[in-house]
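Below is a filled-in request sheet from our internal design queue. Each sheet records the structural input a requester submitted and the sequence that came back. We keep these sheets so that new team members can see what a complete request looks like end to end.

REQUESTER: design group, bay 2
PRIORITY: normal
MODE: inverse folding
CHAIN LENGTH: 459
BACKBONE (tokenized):
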């Protein structure tokens, strides 16, 4: 039986598996999905998990339930043997295994992007996986509770100061949602508890959020009108937006900004961007800016049995030719598609079509896609969106944004909508679950979707 192995179950991998299972439903073809977890993670809603809006399982979609014709193998790919047509992996218990393939789809996604800044890898935490979101949620609650009971104002100020580096899509949403969350926690602790008074011992100190980016504006990769809307909402809410600013050093007691200011804090959230999964570099094939070089049909040149899509692939964007030819040296004459969920999802459909075509089912086609617009949830009823290029803000943008997320999720829609309704009617639960510790979610990890286990590193 012909075997198709898909490595990675993110936006690209999940869509590839689903489309292939439908296209080849009546054929003698085995579809195997290799992934470290048994769920698809809907990343755009992860900031709402960290802010206590959604419960963690709401943003996870079962692979077994949504892909009934696909065989799931739990494991992290460690090596691709192109000559032997095999993928080597390590399962969750540390046992090695291998999968042979007739067709291979690499959709391993991306991990946190690192910069050579002293102290960052030791004291910052990323935001690419569910363990990191769970850790940040607990950490925020813990810092606010400890700030409220701090005996000195300077300790209270440091504990309730939160610094987010990177004002892209993720960083902007984390800061926006986080400010609302900590304000609500502060309000709960500031209520008088007779006859002892409020639990918050420093009445002049309030939670403080800083959003830093070296770019001249927030959301630098999106339409300037979305950037203006997000900037206005953040500042009105109290977030200190500092563009043209980054950090020079991170320490246990705070961060040193590149303008010389030292900000006392116990929280540094790293959202400066992503880089392709390290497995891509280990495959031994040509890469472009760390991404595996592919044709417009998502096929790896010289390897007709290997395909790649999503953040792992340097896909030429046929809608954006390079001026004056191939000015960036990527060999295609086109710019590369951005590393976004929108592109990854649609590339998964094309990858599935072309893998099936390579087996004699259908005709191959090139990937071509025009952006349908973006939506940024800014917490509460606030959002910024430009569906089909139409700029929106306020309540209408909020409704469009949440409607888009419900439509894009491959499952759990009712549960997510129910959590949103409950969040609008009830106060958030300010409790620490203590499920994820700081050392188990290091910034420098090749597997942000899996917490580090005792005695087994995942760098």
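RETURNED SEQUENCE:
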């Amino acid at each position: 039986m012909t075997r198709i192995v898909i490595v990675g179950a993110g936006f690209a991998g999940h869509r590839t598996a689903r489309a292939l299972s439908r296209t080849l439903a009546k054929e003698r073809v085995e579809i195997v999905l290799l992934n470290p977890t048994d769920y698809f993670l809907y990343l755009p809603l992860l900031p709402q998990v960290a802010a206590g809006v959604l419960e963690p399982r709401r943003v996870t979609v079962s692979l077994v339930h949504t892909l009934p014709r696909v065989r799931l193998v739990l494991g992290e790919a460690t090596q691709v043997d192109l000559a032997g047509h095999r993928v080597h992996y390590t399962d969750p218990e540390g046992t090695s295994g291998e999968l042979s393939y007739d067709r291979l789809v690499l959709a391993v996604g991306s991990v946190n992007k690192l910069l050579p800044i002293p102290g960052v890898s030791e004291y910052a935490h990323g935001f690419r996986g569910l363990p990191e979101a769970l850790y940040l949620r607990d950490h925020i609650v813990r810092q606010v509770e400890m700030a409220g009971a701090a005996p000195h104002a300077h300790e209270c100020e440091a504990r309730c100061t939160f610094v987010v580096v990177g004002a892209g899509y993720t960083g902007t949403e984390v800061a926006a949602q986080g400010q609302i969350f900590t304000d609500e926690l502060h309000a709960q602790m500031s209520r008088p508890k007779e006859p002892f008074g409020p639990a918050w011992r420093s009445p002049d100190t309030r939670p403080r959020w800083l959003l830093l980016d070296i770019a001249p504006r927030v959301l630098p990769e999106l339409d300037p009108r979305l950037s203006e809307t997000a900037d206005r909402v953040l500042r009105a809410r109290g977030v200190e937006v500092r563009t043209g600013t980054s950090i020079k050093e991170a320490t246990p007691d705070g961060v040193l900004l590149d303008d010389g200011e030292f900000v006392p804090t116990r929280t540094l959230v790293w959202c400066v961007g992503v880089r392709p999964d390290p497995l891509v570099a280990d495959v031994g094939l040509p890469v472009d800016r760390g991404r595996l070089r592919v044709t417009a049909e998502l096929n790896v040149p010289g390897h007709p049995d290997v395909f790649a899509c999503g953040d792992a692939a340097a896909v030429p964007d046929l809608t954006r030719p390079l001026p004056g030819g191939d000015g960036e040296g990527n060999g295609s004459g086109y710019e590369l598609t951005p590393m976004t969920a929108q592109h990854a999802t649609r590339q998964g459909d094309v990858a599935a079509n072309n893998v099936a075509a390579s087996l004699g089912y259908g005709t191959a086609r090139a990937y071509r896609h025009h952006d349908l617009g973006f939506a940024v949830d800014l917490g509460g009823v606030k959002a910024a969106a430009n569906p089909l290029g139409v700029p929106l803000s306020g309540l209408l943008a909020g409704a469009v944004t949440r409607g888009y997320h419900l439509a894009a999720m491959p499952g759990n829609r009712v549960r997510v909508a129910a959590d949103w309704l409950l969040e609008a009617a009830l106060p958030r639960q300010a409790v620490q679950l203590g499920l994820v510790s700081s050392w188990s979610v290091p910034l420098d990890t090749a597997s942000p979707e899996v917490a580090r286990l005792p005695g087994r590193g995942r760098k």
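SHEET NOTES:
- Residues 169-190 form the longest helix (22 residues).
- Residues 120 and 250 are 6 Å apart (CA to CA).
FILED BY: M.R.
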